[in-house]
Amino acid sequence: MRAPLIPAILELARTHPHTRIVLDHVFGLDLRPGLKIDAAFASLAGKPNIYFKFTTINLDILREEDVPASDALKAVVALYGADHVMWGSDIGTSDGAYHEMVGRIVATAIVAPAVFIAMAGRVRFGLGVPKQHQTAHEEFRFDSALVSRFRSS
Predict the structure, then answer these.
(1) Sign of CA dihedral 54, 55, 61, 67
(2) What is the pLDDT at residue 113?
(3) 27: phi > 0 → left, psi -120 to 50 → alpha, else beta; which?
(4) What are the tens digits of pLDDT across the range 69-120?
(5) DSSP string, 73-141
(6) Separation between Cα atoms, residue 86 and residue 95, nearest integer Å
(7) What is the pTM of this model?
(8) Is 52 helix (H, G, I), strand (E, B) or coil?
(9) What pLDDT digit, counting tens, does each position of 122-137 carry?
């Protein structure tokens, strides 16, 4: 369980306010419907330098547990804000081709278009990492043409 680590993360965020902290796999937050979100996880919300990566691993776990990924994504964005949520492929550690992983998150976001548009409009993928050090497979940049397509539907 990762909840015992949260006080240390909060302290790190407080003492290093200009350092962006990205918690992979939404830091193990249990996304099953009907579960009350642990207060420790809720305490991470609203911190300006803490971000959350919703990944293919999250999608795999949700699929195995028969939980609609769109509901889970909505819950994550409702808790942490679209400007603090990003998607990561986990290419190399998750099964499947990159285009399939992108297809899964786009399909999830299509079911929740308002969430998708909010994430696309506000999240800065790469979080300040110089472009030459970013890898195409690590974060999916929401394309403005794709966003426009969903805004009009």
Answers:
(1) positive
(2) 55
(3) left
(4) 888 888 888 899 888 888 888 888 888 888 888 888 878 876 555 555 555 5
(5) HHHHHHHH-GGGEEEE--BTTBSS-HHHHHHHHHHHHHHSHHHHHHHHHH--TTTT--GGG--TTTBPP
(6) 20
(7) 0.71
(8) strand
(9) 444 333 433 443 444 3
Measured CA to CA, the distance from residue 29 to residue 90 in angstroms comes to 17
133 phi/psi in degrees, rounded to 5: -100, -5
Q: Which two tokens stand for residue 61?
A: 């776990």
pLDDT class of 4 with cuts at 50, 70, 90: confident
| Under 8 Å between Cβ of 86 and 54 | yes
In DSSP terms, 139 is beta-bridged to 88
Cα separation, 153 vs 147, whole angstroms: 10
Taking residue 100's Cβ as centre, other Cβ atoms within 10 Å add up to 12
